[in-house]
Amino acid sequence: MTSAQATTSTSGPSSSPAPLPLSEAVLHALAVTKRGVDELLIESEFAQKLARSEQTGKPLRIKLGLDPTAPDLHLGHTVVLNKMRQLQDLGHNVIFLIGDFTSMIGDPSGRNATRPPLTREQIEENAQTYFKQASLVLDAAKTEIRYNSEWCDPLGARGMIQLSSKYTVARMMERDDFTKRFKAGTPISIHEFLYPLMQGYDSVALQSDLELGGTDQKFNLLVGRELQKDYGQEPQCILTMPLLEGLDGVEKMSKSKNNYIAITEPANTMFAKVMSISDEMMWKYYDLLSFCSIEQIATYKRAVAEGQNPRDIKVALAQEIVARFHSKQAGEEALADFVNRSKGGIPDDIPEVTLAGAPIGIGQLLKQANLCASTSEALRMVEQGGVRIDSAVISDKGLKVDAGSFVLQVGKRKFARVTLTA
Q1: How far is CA 244 from the centre of its chain?
Q2: Residue 11 in this model has a pLDDT that exceeds 50
Q3: Cβ-contact 82, 239 below 8 angstroms
Q4: What class of enzyme is it (predicted)?
Q5: Band (311; pLDDT cuts 50, 70, 90)
Q6: Is the pLDDT reported for residue 112 higher than 60?
Q7: I want to staple 117 with a disulfide (CB 3.0 to 4.6 A). Which of 106, 186, 268, 285 is the partner?
Q8: Would you list the DSSP string of 241-271?
Q9: Is 343 annotated as contributing to ligand binding?
Q10: Rounded CA gap, 334 and 410, in Å?
């Protein structure tokens, strides 16, 4: 869509009509929408959008934009995807927007330094797997896939200048991360101001009724709402979802912090990682990741309060998540594998490794078997009692391992069936 096309409004009313009554179906849809959210702005406006959609039979246009900054999605990404699926199941049109243009700018949200923009090659490589993975949550047949280069590339220099004139530097500096960086004397590049403008222009181009994002995206989402007003459109509502903490229960789930659960991980690994979260954090995972009803989760909480082991409830969550990304059978097998491991058993599906050089030091052996990143890490694991050979704990850091076949284990989840030759 070009800048000229974007100015045409199809949804902006000429005057404020009387509020529509909210039916039971609309109230139900509103409750589903609000489940687990951080904010819904503005709720009364969204309720009216739902009521108008029911009256006219025209589904709402609901937008989620993701920049393909990495090729893999983890459960933290699926928090907003789950909400999109719920809205999709209510009958609305969901738009999965791949930010191939905005990725070249780089989103400055939450950053204390300029983020290096990606190359076109990196973006295209990452984008290839994005929708395939997102389709494990969304109904792919009912999802509209768009790339924002469709309307951003045609803008050109003239259109970019015209768009930039619609927002002031003072308003940009209302962003918390920009303000902090400015006060700290940390550089802010001009192109970073363009990111929220371009994300906002996406909402204009798509004539979005509702845009979703994490809490760190609130400023960008509001820019879209304001730009739609400038272009004569009815402003979108915005919905922000909480950021999901990772396995450590402290930091936001992130691959860089190694506290994540990737949605493409093996079923047994996924199951074991879910089981490793704390009992307290389990409830937030239920709220943000489970498709169980609010009533069912309340039943689980009552059961735990009355003495049921929270582990049983966590097993149900782990099986649900594994079934979503693999299959119900995989969830059952993952539970059996988890129980076997907890009893000290060895799982069936472990990698087989053939190595030469016996006798070999235990540290070097663990590194070559890809169970530890370095010999120093391996020796630390030995020192901490986290290394086993055929289920026997190894405590000697100077151990030389002779030729033979055996199972190496590091921690609770890393195994390798090793054949070592001279």
Answers
A1: 8
A2: no
A3: no
A4: ligase
A5: very high
A6: no
A7: 106
A8: EPPPB-TTSSSBP-TTTT---BTTS-HHHHH
A9: no
A10: 19
Same domain? For 334 and 391 the reply is no
399-410 pLDDT, tens per residue? Answer: 999 888 888 989
Print the SS3 string covering the chain. CCHHHHCCCCCCCCCCCCCCCCCHHHHHHHHHHHCCCCEEECHHHHHHHHHHHHHHCCCCEEEEEECCCCCCCEHHHHHHHHHHHHHHHCCCEEEEEECCCHHHCCCCCCCCCCCCCCCHHHHHHHHHHHHHHHCCCCCHHHEEEEECHHHHHHHHHHHHHHHHCCCCHHHHCCCHHHHHHHHCCCCCCHHHHHHHHHHHHHHHHHCCCEEEEEHHHHHHHHHHHHHHHHCCCCCCEEEEECCCECCCCCCECCCCCCCCCECCCCHHHHHHHHHCCCHHHHHHHHHHHCCCCHHHHHHHHHHHHCCCCHHHHHHHHHHHHHHHHCCHHHHHHHHHHHHHHHCCCCCCCCCEEEEECCCEEHHHHHHHCCCCCCHHHHHHHHHCCCEEECCEECCCCCCEECCEEEEEEECCCEEEEEEEEC
Enclosing domain of residue 181: 3-241
pLDDT interval class at 2 (50, 70, 90): very low
3-state SS of the chain: helix, strand, coil percent to 5? 50, 15, 35
Residue recorded with tokens 């006798």: 359
Lowest mean pLDDT among 104-108, 261-265, 373-377: 104-108
Contact assessment for residue 236 and residue 211, using Cβ atoms and an 8 Å cutoff: yes
Dist. CA 176–CA 184, nearest whole Å: 12
Please enumerate in sequence order all residues whose Cβ is within 8 A of that of 141, keeping only pairs 6 or more positions apart, or say none: none
CATH assignment of the domain containing 7: 3.40.50.620
Residues 384, 336 within the same domain: no
The residue among 389, 380, 283, 292 whose CA lies nearest residue 86 is: 292
Report the amino acid identity of residue 40. Answer: L
Are residues 77 and 173 located together in one domain of the fold? yes
Number of domains in the chain: 3
Q: What is the CATH number of the domain that holds 374?
A: 3.10.290.10
Residue 122 Rama label (left phi>0; alpha psi -120 to 50; beta): alpha
Any idea what the Cα angle at residue 145 is, between residues 139 and 147, rounded to 5°? 155
Phi, psi at 374, each rounded to 5°: -155, 165
Retrieve residue 199's tokens. Answer: 């994300």
pLDDT for the residue numbered 85: 93
